Amino acid sequence: MALEIKINDRTVWVRLIKQNGNLLEVDVNGKIYQVDLLHTPDSTFSIIENGRSYNIELVPQNQPKKYIAHTLYHTYSLEIIDAETRYLINRGSNGLISNEKTISSPMPGKVVKILVNEGDVIQKGENAIIIAAMKMESEYKAPIDGIVKKINVKEGDIIEGDQILIEIE
Fold first, then answer.
1. Is 88 inside any structural domain?
2. Is residue 40 very low, low, confident or very high in pLDDT (cuts 50, 70, 90)?
3. 51 and 21 belong to one structural domain
4. Mind listing the pLDDT tens digit for each residue in 61-81?
5. What is the CATH number of the domain that holds 13?
6. Which residue among 27, 30, 46, 82 is least enclosed by CB atoms within 10 Å?
7. β-strands 23-28, 10-20: how paired?
8. H or E stretch including 83?
């Protein structure tokens, strides 16, 4: 599973390929790295990559999976966005994913109930679909006033994360 990591204004995708103890093979934006990673008792991370040593201190912030990262010479703002974090972020924003004219689920789940039909007029904030994921049901709301253009799923369907469920025009 890939993690989206926002570092200041930059976004990188990191995927663990394999691990043997502290030795990791990771894919960072398509480039493969062999690293020795150690989480020290003083909340820093020691990373050795290609014979070079890096130490990073991660200081948790007020929000889940947000940190300030301190290196020897620089400080960075980090946000780690995994499936759980994406789910929590999107629940707080009425289940909306990036595109304002669609309703998507941030994680895999099952369509429990569709509350609208194609052609229906829908108001911003109106419940449109109920999805079961992580042993709980979530109601996803219309991001805008409009007309339901297309429903891409049916009740009982198993869905994937970030799959567009309903399109609104």
1. no
2. confident
3. yes
4. 877 788 899 998 999 999 888
5. 3.30.700.30
6. 30
7. antiparallel
8. helix 83-92
| Count of positions (residues) in the chain | 169
The pair of three-digit structure tokens given for residue 28, joined into one six-digit string:
């960072």
160, β-bridge pairs: none
Among residues 81, 109, 141, the one where a domain terminates is 81
The dihedrals phi and psi of 100, each to the nearest 5 degrees, come to -70, -10
The amino acid sitting at 2 is A
65 and 22 housed in the same domain: yes
Tokens of 64: 């889940």
Question: pLDDT value at position 48?
Answer: 95
Q: Taking the CA of residue 32 as centre, how many other CA atoms within 13 Å lie in the half-sphere pointing to its CB?
A: 4
Give this prediction's pTM: 0.50
Residue where one domain finishes, among candidates 53, 81, 109: 81
Cβ atoms 163, 111 nearer than 8 A? no
Beta-carbon contacts of 56 under 8 Å, excluding residues fewer than 6 positions away, are 44, 45, 47, 69, 70, 71
* Cβ–Cβ < 8 Å for 92, 107: no
Number of domains in the chain: 2
Range of the domain at 133: 94-168
Burial (CB < 10 A; 0-12, 13-18, 19+), residue 1, is exposed
What would the two tokens of residue 146 be? 């409009």
